[in-house]
Amino acid sequence: MIDHFGAIHRTYAHTLGQMGLPPPTLAQVRSAVGGGIHNSLAKFLPPERLAEGLAIYREFWDRTMLEGVELMPGARELLEQLSARGAVLAVITNKLGSSSRLICDHLGISPLLQAVVGAQDTAWLKPAPEFTRHVLDLLGARADESLLIGDSPFDIAAAHAGGMPAWCVTTGTHSRAELEAAGADRIFDHFSEMSRVI
């Protein structure tokens, strides 16, 4: 839903630089993210330095995460369209829940959302079925009347684990072929295309 890779890459570069390591490329960061910061940062650091890296990352991230973040084209319009039709909307993410709520506030979409649930809000991350079920319960929603929109195999697995379809956009870190291989139920190149058929 958002383009946050500038801030994410900047924070990885800062973290590794502070640890005396070469900064990663944007492509390396894009290929690493998706499973939560602990799992992603572990792809760049040895286990014995991970706690140090996480502390540096989180301090810098908290100070700079709103710099350059923006909604993907068509995302706001899709949320507004669905909200106007009475859909109950929420964000389920492997980003920190506290950060995600700040981002949604910053982008002005919080009034369209019933909940924003992320890492450290529960004991789970996507694609754990417990995480998906928790959010459905929080919303008072039924899986057979719900849809998860995402851009990664984590989203697809989370949707299917929760008993709902996964519609994906190719604006994230995974290609159409990768999303097809992961079992996406529908794939779109952008949110505006999805808006026309949802």
Structure description:
With 198 residues, this protein is an alpha/beta fold. It folds into two domains: 63 residues, Putative phosphatase, domain 2 (DNA polymerase, domain 1), CATH 1.10.150; 127 residues, HAD superfamily/HAD-like (Rossmann fold), CATH 3.40.50.1000. Helix content is 48%, strand content 13%. It contains ten helices and seven strands. The strands form three sheets. It has a three-stranded parallel sheet with strand order 5-6-7. β5, α8 and β6 form a beta-alpha-beta unit. α5 runs parallel beside α10. The longest helix is centred in the N-terminal third of the chain and has 15 residues. The model has no long low-confidence stretch (mean pLDDT 95).
Structural class based on helices, strands and sheet pairing? alpha/beta
CATH architecture classification name of the largest domain: 3-Layer(aba) Sandwich
Strand percentage lies at 5-15%
Mean pLDDT: 95
Task: Give the helix level as a range of percent.
Answer: 40-55%
At the third CATH level, what is the topology name of the largest domain?
A: Rossmann fold
Separate helix tally: 10
Stretches with pLDDT under 50, minimum 5 residues: none
Count of β-strands: 7
Summarize the main sheet. Answer: 3 strands, parallel
Give a quick precis of the structure.
The protein has ten helices and seven strands. The chain is α/β, with parallel strands linked by helices and 198 residues long.
